[in-house]
Amino acid sequence: MKYTLIRNAIADTATRNAYNALAAATFGLSFENWYNSGHFSGNHIPYTLMDGEKAVANISVNTMDVLYNGRTRKYLQLGTVMTDPAHRGKGLQKQIFNEILKDFSGKYDGLFLFANKSVLDFYPKLNFKRADYYNYSKTVAHKPAQLKKLDMSNGEDVAFLKKYYAKGNPFSALQVTDNFSLLMFYCGSFFADFVYYIPQYDAVFIAEVGDNSMTCYGIYCDGGSMDDILSAFPVKNANLGFTPADTTGCEITKSQDDDTALFIHTTGENIFTQPLLFPELFHT
Asked: For site-directed labelling of 264, which of 8, 107, 132, 277 has its Cα 20 to 30 A away?
């Protein structure tokens, strides 16, 4: 059977629809709203094998700037790795991946992906090595502060978020910069109810808040105290979705989650020899 490889399937309506159909069947996902939102950028590049008009296999390349230790690196994060069940066992993923390696040769500092437990034995065959990453949490001493929820369907609030994202997260040791598009993939959908502004600290805060704990995915502001900002929420514990620059008072645990296993390709650098957590807002 002969397949056609489409580089950047999302750029054409017919191939984008086919890509979305495969993503919906595999993961229950569609990228159409993101594409039409005005926030989509060329950083998300699906490499899609087509059987006629049907998408049967895909690996998406996500290009990103990663700031770590004072230097910005060019990283590639692979995602939306999927194959139609009727076309599995034919080496299609390896075929796509080899094309990606050829196209991006010499154009990246690091290449990585997150994989679930069903494919842990597959990626080493493509010269990926599993790497450790770490989770961070802190006890929170609540000090009430005004919280304003931002409306991600409101253009002014989205522009406000964009302005604060440009400031960066001063409390994170590892940041993805200049990628508001990917931030809006989450904040325009799954995390639309998680975006707050705290006037007292002039900070935008993205967090999923429960009864006694929360997961803080990002804090965007000019500076200040992370502990003070965390304390604005009425919880006792904060899980951090990024690597804190200051780990004082943090509980640090190595992740044992096989459903978000980190794999680093041997053609690039591996900064995860250090106890790091890649920002969860920028997983693909």
From this structure: 8
Arithmetic mean of pLDDT over the chain: 96
- Which residues, other chains included, contact 130 with Cβ-Cβ below 8 Å and sequence gap of 6+? 120, 123, 124, 261, 262, 263
Which amino acid, 126? Answer: L
Strand pairing category for 203-209 and 213-220? antiparallel
Per residue in 85-106, pLDDT (tens digit) is 999 999 999 999 999 999 999 9
pTM score: 0.95
Structure-block tokens of residue 158: 């989205």
**DSSP assignment of 110-173, as one string?**
EEEEEE-GGGTTTGGGGTEEEE--EEEEEE--------EE--TTSHHHHHHHHHHHTT--TTBS
Superfamily of chain region 135-253? Gcn5-related N-acetyltransferase (GNAT) (3.40.630.30)
Domains of the chain, residue spans: 4-133+256-282, 135-253
The yes/no answer on whether domain 4-133+256-282 falls in CATH 3.40.630.30 is yes
Q: What is the 3-state secondary structure (H, E, C) of 61-102?
A: EEEEEEEECCEEEEEEEEEEEEECHHHCCCCHHHHHHHHHHH
Pairwise CA distance, residues 81 & 266, whole Å = 19
